[in-house]
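Course assignment 3, question 2. Fill in each field.
Student: A.L.
Task: Predict the tertiary structure for the chain below.
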Amino acid sequence: SMAQVDEKLATTSGCFACHRQDVGITGPSYNDVYEKYKDDADAEDYLVEKVKTGGSGVWGPIPMAPNFHIDEDDIRTMVRQILHLED
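Answer field:
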């Protein structure tokens, strides 16, 4: 079963503006992120940093805005959920 990102956390953080669990909007779906990084041991730290600072080019030309307004612990929680590292 696919891990589900914490909906309340993702909603209040603004993540759902660009990402959904199984559908990409302006960014990839969480399921796609999982598939891409599930075998990458460094994915957790990489993705936490990526969410925080933003960037573009991994999934296409549309940039991901930086998210300095989200607490890093919350970012890590959601990244770990996306990577199926915690329920």
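Instructor remarks: The CA atoms of residues 29 and 66 lie 18 Å apart. DSSP finds four helices and no strands in the chain.
Grade: pending
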